[in-house]
Batch of 3 targets.
Target 1
Amino acid sequence: MGLALWMALAVLFGACAAPAAAPTGDAAAPATAPAAESATEQIAEPDIVEGMFNVAFVYVGPIGDGGWTYAHNQGREYVEAAMGNEVHTVYLESVPEGADAERVIRNLARKGFNAIITTSFGYMDSTETVAEEFPDTSFVHVSGFKKNETNFANLFGAMESMKYLSGMIAGARAQADGSTRIGYIAPFPIPEVIRHANAAALGMRQTCPECLMDIRWIFTWFDPQKEREAAQSLIEAGATVVITGADTPGPVQVAGENGLYGIGYDSDNACEVDRDACLTTPYWNWGPLYAGLIDEMMTGVWQPNDIYFDVDSGSLGLLGFMEGEEPFPGVPAEVIPQVRAVLDRMLAGEFTRFDLFTGPINNNKGDLVAPEGVQLTQSDLEGIDADLGAVLGREGCTICMNWLIEGIVPDAEIPQ
């Protein structure tokens, strides 16, 4: 993708993963910050507590979404529990991107918050702008690619690795059911979403080489009705497992209603909507990361880096397969040791996102995109082309992931 398109996407698109159909967990009601109101109403910002290190989290969805925002709020609660004597945290939920987000972030900085963490792809430019205005405030943006050298970092992780394992499970389930069709719900045509779908298809082909993955683009992070409709459409087209890349557990619920299976996303409670129909959920564990970053800020050693963690960080999980967890009943027994073996290698740092995307790789049209033994780079995975790389001070991509991988139905296209 070119620089102009990336900049447009940064303004247009929201969270890196998004809210869900309805609250599915016991998310606490806001105690320290009021909920944000609609895009046309005033959003009230909370105040700092003198004598403490004050951290504000800006969320694109509601904390009870059962997905992306729920997981980030779990991370905030972890910080409160681990550092509550020194750190005061607040959050604002359902903050729209664009002018509203920039105003909210700026007002938080004006109020004296020491650190501001923004958790939506569409907050990237707003965070960058405000960071330049408040050099003494620390800013972390989750899911983007911009940073500066003084007070603005970006943060994300290799969820593609967990999507790969999810694909292995989905493929095994389809094969056990005599099916060759799996469905994937894709929110937006941005590199993050593309590589997650591609990784899931790679995993699927490991356990069901004859399987094909159908895809539905819904152009939203959070729209429970659209997500349910996309899941139903995939099922009517023959999919027996539906994997969601959006943030509600609705697709899992729809799969269960049809006597089939689904795979959730984002938070470790996403399967609660239907445990019998849910095969697994790749989820985020933000708490230790947030606590570590905040501790570095408090002690003055924090550096605003590009932070992209892998599975060995402990901040990525696969529900049913982590320590102390048991696979869900729908997971075929024969795939469990296969998934655990790959996961163990990931946790040991022996199999990374770059090993995952190593050639030979064909696209879904049958064209070779990565020759034998060639690994994609981080810029390839993030779609950072030469123009954008020059702006960011990074090498541009040479095998830019603007393609869908073999295993995704050949007539599928990336919308422009």
Target 2
Amino acid sequence: MGEIRFDDLEDVKRFIRDIFYGKDEERNDQDEPPRGGRPRKHIKGGLGGIIIILFLVFLGTGIYQVGPDEEAALLRFGKYVKTVGPGMHWYFPSPIGKRYVVKTTKVYRVEIGFETVEVGPPARYQNIPEESLMFTGDENMIDVDFSVQYKISSLKDYIFNVKDQYKTIKSASESALRQVVGSKGIEETLTVGKEGIQDETREKLKEILDSYGIGVTIIGIQLQDVGPPEEVMQSFKDVSNAREDRARFINEANGYRNDIIPNARGQASQMINRAEAYKQKRIKESQGDVAKFIKLTEKYSLGKEVTKTRMYLETMEKIMPNVEKIIVDPNLKGSLINFIGGGAGNNEKTNN
């Protein structure tokens, strides 16, 4: 078969005419005059030309385009061949080849426990109790709605390793969250433990999906709504209010304690200081009394009778300062009585 060249439009027309009518028929048509004023046309290569055109059209269906945020997985006779990126490509058409074009930079979202009915605004959601109701570690039931965001990291694994990607990720997410919530108490789940639950669920879900080889990367897990079931909502509010009252009473008691204890400690410190001062005073007084007693003892040892009498007299003056005192000398004989002291100054001697 020789080289086919198309130098001008006439060459293209001639080529098409050769395919449908053949070269010999075209020469015969030029040599023989037409009968009845109409040219004769005999299709010799028409079937072959149609086949060629259909084949070219068939090959043309293999042209496809991959968007900037997409990738295409190519199969030949049902077997994976390769993955191509953005741009214009050609591949064997069906049934020889097959291609799956998927957005790989898009962040996909899986909803568990609820379903978005209308995006809005305002958005409307429908609760799915069979997905959202779960037990906590302290055997309380809780209603949890959450969502999972992920991206495709390996298109080949994403397409061929699992059958239903969305359902698989949703089931794995629900299972991971139930495991984590089942290890927590209801109070922790409803209050300060939400962030920790999200992190633990993400790690648990990553382990599950990696074991499946699903070819996705978890971007994040978000707890949308966490609360008790509607049937026990009022009772739960009563319990919550009681806990808040308890916390308030505890805070008030702590405030009262913080006010009373410092005052009591101050008073106790003041009393201790006073007692310490009184102790020191009594010690000094006792030491002074001891020193005084020692001196008296020394004087007493020098003149026991005189000292004894003087001490007796001084003691009597202290005990009875305003009482008339009569002192009788035991050595006196007869009826003479000596009066010494207040009230007897003018009667030094009295006869009976």
Target 3
Amino acid sequence: MPEFLLDTVGDVCPVPLLKVQKEARRLGPGDLLVIEIGQPRTVRNIIEWAAKNGYATEVSPEAHGMWRLGLRLGAGGARKAGR
């Protein structure tokens, strides 16, 4: 399954969540969106949104207050345009 990277470091809420939502609409079921995040509140916001939409998440803290969040798009979630 394809993997896509989204860098939201330096973005202030709600911009990172809006970017994630836009990418989730563009990607297909099973795709992995890896999000680089620089704000702890953003991590929580994305995890909460993902849970409400049935997406699996996995967070790994990185150095210097950074996080990488993997968002696996589920079959009932996002669809590619035209599908």
